[in-house]
Amino acid sequence: MNSLHTLRDKVAVVTGAGRGIGASLSAEFARWGADVAVNDLNAQGAAETARLVSEQGRKSFVNTGDVSDRAQARDFVASVTKALGRVDILVNNAGITRDALLHKMTEAQWDDVIRVNLKGPFN
User: Fold this and answer.
1) Which long-range contacts (CB under 8 A, 24 or more apart) does 56-63 make?
2) What's the predicted TM-score (pTM) here?
């Protein structure tokens, strides 16, 4: 791609955007011209990512809702649509790991991983 503005005026939603891959993608989308809705349970991380988006001259929207909760996910989408007009790009990046061998993992740890990594994108 020759132009850094190929995503100009698109709206990207990135879950798990408070650090790592999600933060990097959010900043890159902004660099390419997109406005970005940043979602992360970590409010400080989400705010920092939103700052990176704003530094590129793009609009940002911060949400700290839990995407694994159906009602919060719906509220997030409704809020993004109201604030930024629409959703053109979705990156379901939110995910967790509970480092343990399967036979040492508790049922609660397993449920957390399934809830965030599978139900979150479903929502």
Assistant:
1) 56/27, 56/30, 56/31, 57/30, 58/30, 58/33, 58/34, 59/35, 59/83, 59/84, 60/26, 60/30, 60/35, 60/36, 61/35, 61/36, 61/37, 62/37, 62/38, 63/37, 63/38, 63/39
2) 0.92
